[in-house]
Specification:
About 25% of the residues lie in helices and about 20% in strands. The protein is built from 11 helices and 19 strands. A 4-stranded mixed β-sheet has the order 4-1-7-6. Helix 1 crosses helix 3. Bound molecules: iron/sulfur cluster.
Amino acid sequence: MSMFKDIPVEVGVIYEGERIRRNDMQVELGGPTVKQKFELAKVKPMNEIDDGKITIIGPDLKDMKEGGAYPFGILVEAAGAKLDQGLEGVIERRIHGYLNYIEGFMHLNQRYDLWIRIGKKSFAKGLNSFEPIGKVLYRLFKSELPIIEKVQITFITDPAKLEDMTPDAMQAYESRDAKARGLKDSEVDTFYGCALCQSFAPSHVCIITPQRYSNCGAISWFDGKASASIDPKGPVFAIPRGEIINEEKGEFSGVNEAAKKRTMGEVNQVWLYTAFDHPHTSCGCFEAVTFYIPEVDGLGVVNRAFKGAAVNGLPFSTIADSAAGGRQIDGFHGMSIEYMRSKKFFAADGGWNRVVWIPKEVKEKINEFIPKDVVDKVATEDDAKNIDELKAFLKAKNHPVVAKWESDAAPAAETTAIQFNEEAAGTMMPVATAGSLPIMAGGFKIILKDAKIYANKVIITTVKDSKDNKDKR
Ligand code: SF4
């Protein structure tokens, strides 16, 4: 049932995780084909905010061509006596949750990777302007986060204005990320967890530590702390770190307990600093994904924006799909770009000494965080487009993994067995997955392991309801 009578479509938590396929979409805002896109929250002085004001700069939804993809920005400016800049990341991440409450509205990713689709059916019902969308955002911000006293929302579709505003947004993200750099996991006794993506990946929970940023790259340890303190019942919660079980791999008793509780037993053990054995789960909105390359015994990384095939011949979409859905897949790990700046970045696997291939764009962004003795030995698409070229490059540069080839048996000439899944498109497309799904049928209990289920319609009734209905027949 809708929360708001004056909004042309329903608004409610049941629409979270709703997927809008290309054929069903009226328009796309941001997304992989569009360069200009961002969402940003700013905390402002009280007198600078016109509470409830919704501004649209550029064409509105009704002026857009059906099936088109448009540049897009959302600016949420908030004020409140207890608000400060440290809460901007928290406010910004709520945009994802709140917009996904709207029927026929799909919000994926975050920050500069924003991707929205408006469904045809909702457009036909009257969701043809940013005005009602702004109203929903405004009301949810005010009701869910009472610390916000005033809020105004701006939607930007004008390319010139977006061009103008993008540098400020990028600067805001960078200063938030930089704040958490330098703090060590061993220096704090509380980590934070986020379960916001469980609507898409039911067994996923992000463990956010100073040295392990959230998968989406939108919530730092400081953001986690701020979010848990202003909204302790919200999706972000404190995790007492507990006992250090394995310092090298990054295993903590508090993290294991929180993962077990929040995933209802699906995930019992998490190793924060490795891509192997018990890696952190991958939801779907991670910025990049690591993949093991058995032929060279090294790790590759491919980011969402990378076009074409990574060095193993697979696009981001396929690699991402093999890890997503809240699973722990040995050798695969969805993560943020910021995690690559951490000293704990796959520290248990050899850190940068184990990374053999990353896209040029990512390398440029994080260049200064890669140790000097290995930075030129990590290949990009300019150096290697396939495994043979990669092997030759690593050998020529004497990458640290080459010494392992010589000391261990020769690297396996395996190929990574992943089925291409075009529909998932590596886009944080929600897929129904389950690490272990029990089904009762005919007196047997059938357990589907690593199940992924697609359905046109799902009907859920309580056992009592179905029995009552049967009795009435
Ligand atoms: S990726 Fe992690 S931190 Fe980001 S919204 Fe999802 S669960 Fe939260």
